[in-house]
Design brief:
single chain
Length: 183
């Protein structure tokens, strides 16, 4: 199942409880923020809202419902589904939309560059995926790298995270079967 592959990859990078002072998202556990956990608790998806106590199974349930199912990543084929899911977990849906829209435009698809996830962006991605899934996957990976670089340019305090982001980026490309450089 595609979700199992995607969640396994993402959880490898999201780790356990972290509260790094430079992380504007605040405390997280397995990549889940306190506000995301509160929403899951209020919706009855989990039985508590103590971020330090979040289990792997609880995180998986939150990711499946609030990230994978909510945005329909399962309707995309591998590896596009895994790439979009990991981008959403790491950057949020607004930034996922921006990255996806930039990829679409770079591949010749006319979409609004509005940073909003909606039917136009979804249709453009599905059309491009149908034409050439590998080209779309590669362009999403490239645009994500550009996004990481823009974060550090605009907020130099985030450079502390760049090495880890680049490792995650490189391993996602490898997991997706994408070779970015010729040897």
């Amino acid at each position: 199942m595609s979700f199992n592959r995607a969640i396994s990859f993402t959880l490898k990078w999201e780790g356990g409880y972290v509260n790094h002072p430079a992380d504007k998202g605040g405390a997280t556990n397995r990549g889940i923020t306190q506000s995301t956990l509160n929403a899951a608790f209020n919706a009855g998806l989990v039985k508590h809202n103590v971020i330090e106590a979040l289990s792997r199974d609880e995180a998986v349930a939150i990711y499946k419902r609030n990230f994978w199912n909510r945005y329909g990543w399962g309707s995309f084929s591998a590896p596009v589904d895994m790439i979009l899911f990991d981008i959403t977990v790491n950057h949020g849906i607004g930034n996922t939309a921006k990255i996806a829209q930039r990829a679409c435009v770079s591949l010749g698809q006319d979409v609004a560059m509005d940073g909003k996830w909606g039917p136009e962006t979804r249709r453009a991605l599905l059309l491009l995926e149908g034409r050439d899934s590998l080209a779309l996957s590669k362009m999403l990976i490239i645009k994500r790298l550009n996004f990481y670089e823009s974060i550090v340019r605009s907020r130099p305090s985030q450079k502390v995270f760049l090495r880890g982001w680049l490792r995650r980026w490189s391993e996602l490309a490898a997991a997706a079967g994408i070779r970015l450089w010729a040897n």
